[in-house]
What we know:
The chain is built from 18 helices and no strands. By secondary structure, the chain is mainly α.
Amino acid sequence: MFVMAMAVNLTPLLFVTLQAQFGLSFEQVGRLVLFNFTTQLLVDLMCAGLVDRINAKWLAVSGNALVAVGLWTLALSPFRLEAPYLGLVLGTVIFSAGCGLLEVIVSPIVERTPGERKAAGMALLHAFYPLGKVVVVVVTGLLFFAFGTAHWPYLVLGWSLVPTLVTLAFAGLRLPPMFEIGRRTRVRDLLRQRATWLSILAIALAGAAEVGMAQWASAFAERGLGVDKLTADLLGLGSFGVGMAVGRLWFGMRRQTIDMIRLMRRGATGAALMCLVMAFSGLAWVSLLAAAAAGLFVSLLWPGMLSLTSARFPLAGASLFALLAAGGHGGAGVMPWLVGIGADVFQHAPGWLAGDLAPEQIGLRLGLALAAVPALVLVGVLGRWRDLGD
């Protein structure tokens, strides 16, 4: 989970740097996120009907190895190709394929681990995603502050050591079977259930809300709020990750049961409100505090939907997680891209709307506000999911 967080969140820390070095637009850097999650979505879909027939350890080893290779490609290929953007895309696609494999297999591994508190275990597992995000943001931000952003390829190469070591660690493990022989719910039967489609839609909206805010938090703080690079990384994307980690650790360590759907609906509502505060507050420190609160509110949306759906379909095996991951990655890929498009388009907003803000600032603010939409829609979808009953 740390490896996934590292791979997904390195690129947003480089948005402004890549723009300046290679002359890219907001849409182009946002499109890298689209390539990231679209690749993960395609891998998820390919795995949906096959994952229960493939050795789990092979998937975990292959996923980590692909992330390592992708980071090397991201760091080196832009300087070897005539079209640097093609190199960025190539590296993104390779490490994203690895992330897709990991997303498919790590949650089923935890789900199949013996224990009574499955939802709490899932929350703890997914807590290591924002924890990894915070570590990557802090370490990367401090190194950029100390040595500058010009040497970013060496930083990416350094981070590639992590998936390399995890590849070796998984190679020595024995993993439990991902389903009980003869009792697995087939994919075709899952797809006939209304609850399956509502779950896929819900996790797509959860991914859109979470990643739409997270992937642009650093660039928004630096360009939209006008704070320095280190502060933007630590208090933009970093504070968002801290909020996510706190929420998931809190739930994972709770002993009493809780109404998950009610908690998720409140979280989605709070996330939408905090997104709007981030976008439209006239004070930078208020926007940065809202980023941390938004991370807290979105923290249980993705793992919560995994837990609710796996409880409804206990014999589905890892195929169910592949379908849900595809939905989540679809939303997570499209929303940051739409924010980037919005940031480009809204730079041409009329003067009465922009006020004293520079075109780039008003573009980023209005673009980021779009990420509140999926969170608000999710509130209604969760209500429909509850109406299905048991």
